[in-house]
Amino acid sequence: MKSPRKTLAAALASAGVLIALAGNASAQATYAIAAIAGGNCAPYSINDVSYVAGTCDGNAVVWRGGAATNLGRLAGGTYANASYINSLGVAVGDSDTGNGRPQSWVSTPAGLYNIFPNNGGNTHALFIGENGYIGGYYTKSLSGGTSSWHGAIWVRDPKDPSRYRETDLPFLPGGINTKYTGSVPMAFNQLGQAAGYASNDQIGQHAVFWKNDAAHSVVDLGVFGSDWSSLGWGMNDLGQVVGESHPPYANRAILWNNDAAHTAIELPLLAGDNWGAAHMINNLGQVIGTSAYVAPGTMSGTASRYVIWRDGGVFDLQTLLDPVTGAGWTIDYVAGINNLGQIVGIGMQNGASAVFVMTPQ
User: Fold this and answer.
1) Are strands 275-281 and 52-56 parallel, antiparallel or unpaired?
2) 309 close to 20: Cβ distance less than 8 angstroms
3) Angle (CA) 136 142 143, round 5°
4) At residue 8, what are phi and psi to the nearest 5 degrees?
5) What DSSP string runs through 185-223?
6) I need a labelling partner for 275 at 20 to 30 A (CA). Which of 76, 117, 233, 236 fits?
7) Angle at alpha carbon of residue 181, lines to 256 and 227, rounded to 5°
């Protein structure tokens, strides 16, 4: 299906989106920035009590109050990363067991526990809710040596709390050749909803939304206008999804509302840009993404800039650093935003790489 189109202002107002249609660049909030790690470290997310999940020197790591805790790796593993940590301090992530294939784990007092030993493929745990459910995706071997991506959730087995039960998220219907059928959720929320993309040989690739009903029903979010494909990258607890839609030789940043029609809104880019994507959204309706210019009919243009959509506009994140703490900083990568508006990523601080947290002032 193709999502209905509305103007940005009308769609935001009718859907009750929490992006205020007011303010300008001069009134825009600034962000204090602080380093929490340097060296060979990378963040993946930041939660609502400001815990950061990530990796350092090949080990899964979480930061609380700027202090790092090394969670290690699965037994025999050569690497590990922490994808998310909930407010109770329980983390999930990926690690191999010596063969390079990602397996997914949850942190326990006894160490990392492999929730889904899928040694014939690979598994990625992306999220753990406050109620302990885990969301992610994995590959599953098919006949003829092919494989397919499956979205999944894992919950504790009530008969054996040391184990987890796995449930696949459904594919979009309509595919004929199963080797072209798959789905990859890229984001989950506290309500048990998910968003990402799905593919089959009839539609190609479309952004999708999984409900939190008993069947985890899947909704095709479609494409914007007459575009040819789309991807979902992030979602919030209101069920709003952000991502991108693809016309020929272009990229649109899109927000799909959680109304009955999953109304699609094209988010404006920085002045003069024509190529963008939306990567994550918080419960305040603040969206993080990228904006760039690409010469029409080519794949060459300017470097992408990280931007935030908030207060009725789009702003270059680099320009929102406060002049005191932001001196000497260059934003290179944004990994996450929480519901307080804090942003985590990687940048250069006076020429040295560092993990940062940006806090709105």
Assistant:
1) unpaired
2) no
3) 180
4) -60, -50
5) EEEE-TTS-EEEEEEETTTEEEEEEE-SSTT--EEEEE-
6) 236
7) 40
Both tokens of 330, joined, read 């260059």
Please name which of 346, 342, 321 lies closest in space to residue 331, comparing C-alpha atoms.
346
Q: What is the 3-class SS of 15-48, one letter each residue? A: HCCCCCCCCCHHHCCCEEEEEEEECCEEEEEECC
Question: Angle CA(127)–CA(222)–CA(146) in degrees, nearest 5?
Answer: 65
pLDDT single digits (tens) 207-233: 999 999 999 999 999 999 999 999 999
Tokens of 51: 């815990």
Q: From CA 318, how far away is CA 356, in angstroms rounded?
A: 13
Domain map (residue ranges) of the chain: 8-360
Per residue in 74-88, pLDDT tens? 999 999 999 999 999
* 3 state DSSP class of 235: strand
Statement: 8-360 belongs to CATH 3.40.190.80: no
Is the torsion defined by CA of 250, 336, 287, 241 positive or negative?
positive
Query: How do 59-64 and 67-72 pair as beta strands?
Result: antiparallel
Q: Which amino acid is residue 62, in one-letter code? A: V
183: tokens are 């789905």
Token pair belonging to 125: 């745990």
Element (H, E) at 275: strand 275-281
Do the beta carbons of residue 63 and residue 57 sit within 8 Å? Answer: no
Taking a C-beta distance cutoff of 8 angstroms, is the pair 344, 356 a contact? yes
Q: Given this model, what pLDDT does residue 200 score? A: 92
In the chain, what are the helix, strand and coil shares in percent, each to the nearest 5? 5, 50, 40
Query: Within the chain, what is the greatest distance between any pair of CA atoms?
Result: 59
Question: For the chain, how big is the Rg over CA atoms in Å?
Answer: 20
Return mean pLDDT, the chain: 90
